[in-house]
Design brief:
Number of domains: 2
CATH architecture of the largest domain: Alpha-beta prism
Radius of gyration: 21 Å
Bound molecules: shikimate-3-phosphate
Structural class: alpha+beta
Largest sheet: 4 strands, mixed
CATH topology of the largest domain: UDP-n-acetylglucosamine1-carboxyvinyl-transferase, Chain
Shape: globular
Strand content: 25-35%
CATH class of the largest domain: Alpha Beta
Helix content: 25-40%
Oligomer: single chain
């Protein structure tokens, strides 16, 4: 499976009207909260990617009746806060850090024990950021000596509420603690060092829970019951990101993206690209299932390098592979700091992107917490390795819009974790992308 390789021939045009698949973060949360709610939760626009399907299968393995996905529709018969059943096998969460970290919180409050495993990439990712505060709440979780998966969570601990000062800006940590907090008889509060995506808080409110937020402190009272309801998942701005950057850097670029999630904790990519001189217009802003949504139109423009404001980093955390391609096409130098988290994503995104950019003739200087990228007008052709990282593979595909020769990208199977129809949509708007198995 990992033998999948993309070849992208140079081209100059990216044009069309697209709806990219559903938001990954929101799709995971819809399954998790729908499962522990009472009554039916009907989800539309669900992302049928490998990551979110791993979450769906995990809850089916805990005896939650779930139908779908079929054409983006999933129907969950919620079993209530105490209704999950012990799975008979370890829960395999594949490549999905969001599944493992959020579920660590949810599983910590169950009456049964559970083991969670993942693929080679997930098995290298740090879990202490969730296991340590969960242990402070009373959870009993074992990991490897390095704090990596598999996680073994012992059932039935009496959980207590804590007030936790998060050391890093992480929505996954915040969400894990909120989910564990539901299983306490007290209040759990998390103080964020900087705002991170707030889909969990918004969705908990949609299920009828009270979540308080004041000055970066988020509090939830335990024992609140969730009421099933309909959720429409917007298109994922993190998937739209590749086409947004592609349209900016193409000679003739004009792409319209429909029904894109515009949660202000996710739109850092638009702010950064606009500071670089991008032509991005937003239409028909609306609210859907408690989340802001809009259509976005992006046209080609000459970008210029900037110092990326550190405050925007958590708001664009998954978009840096795409943004590095934009920076490489900009006039002048782009400097990123305050982004050490990129080193512990599906791959070390600073290192892996720097290596690929070097292969294409770009001068970069990776630092401990970021990178310096010298813009060039055109990439050379060449071979780059995605290291099994979906977003790295998709980012380098867009580089072909400014390349002199073909770009060969190795190890692309994991594109299916977040964007299963990427190849078809990319071809539809003009990318000369072919797949070799
Ligand atoms: C996610 C949060 C982010 C992001 C990840 C999805 C989520 O991670 O990078 O892809 O759904 O909560 P961190 O919160 O660890 O930064």
């Amino acid at each position: 499976m990992n033998a999948i390789q993309f070849t992208v021939e140079p081209s100059e045009e990216l044009q069309g009207n697209l709806r990219v698949p559903g938001d990954k973060s929101i799709s995971h949360r819809a399954i998790m909260l729908g499962a522990i709610a009472e009554g039916v939760t009907e989800v539309t626009g669900f992302l049928a990617g490998a990551d979110t399907l791993a979450t769906l299968a995990a809850f089916q393995a805990m005896a939650v009746p779930i139908q779908g996905p079929q054409a983006g529709k999933v129907v969950i018969q919620g079993v209530g806060l105490q209704g999950l059943k012990a799975p008979t096998v370890p829960l395999d969460l594949g490549n999905s850090g969001t599944s493992m970290r959020l579920m660590a919180g949810l599983m910590a409050g169950q009456k049964f024990s559970v083991e969670m495993t993942g693929d080679a990439s997930l098995s290298r990712r740090p879990m202490k950021r969730v296991t340590e505060p969960l242990a402070a709440m009373g959870a009993d979780i074992q990991s490897s000596a390095q704090g990596t998966p598999p996680l073994r969570i012992r059932g039935n601990p009496p959980l207590k509420g804590i007030e936790y000062q998060m050391p890093m800006a992480s929505a996954q940590v915040k969400s894990a603690l909120l989910l564990a907090g539901l299983y306490t008889h007290a209040t759990t509060c998390i103080v964020e060092p900087a705002p991170t995506r707030d889909h969990t808080e918004r969705m908990l409110r949609g299920f009828g829970c009270e979540v308080k937020e004041e000055a970066g402190k988020i509090c939830l009272r335990g024992g609140q019951r969730l009421q099933g309801h309909a959720i429409d998942v917007p298109a994922d701005i993190s998937s739209a990101a590749f086409f947004i950057v592609g349209a900016c850097i193409a000679q003739r670029g004009k792409v319209r993206l429909q029904h894109v999630g515009m949660n202000p904790t996710r739109t850092g990519i638009l702010a950064i690209l606009r500071q670089m001189g991008a032509d991005i217009r937003v239409y028909q802003e609306r609210q859907v299932s408690g989340e802001p949504v809009a259509d976005i139109e992006v046209c080609s423009s000459q970008l210029h390098g900037i110092e990326i404001p550190p405050a925007l980093v958590p708001l664009a955390i998954d978009e840096f592979p795409a943004l590095f391609i934009a920076a490489a096409c900009a006039q002048g130098t782009t400097i990123l700091t305050g982004a050490e988290e990129l080193r512990v994503k599906e791959s070390d995104r600073i290192q892996v992107m720097a290596e690929g950019l070097t292969q294409l003739g770009v001068v970069t200087q990776p630092t401990t917490d970021g990178i310096i990228i010298e813009g060039i007008q055109r990439f050379g052709g060449g071979k780059v390795h995605s290291h099994g990282d979906h977003r790295v593979a998709m980012a380098f595909s867009m580089a072909a819009l400014r390349a002199q020769g073909s770009i060969l990208i190795e190890d692309c199977a994991n594109v299916a974790t977040s964007f299963p129809n990427f190849v078809a949509l990319a071809q539809q708007v003009g990318l000369k992308l072919s797949v070799q198995q």
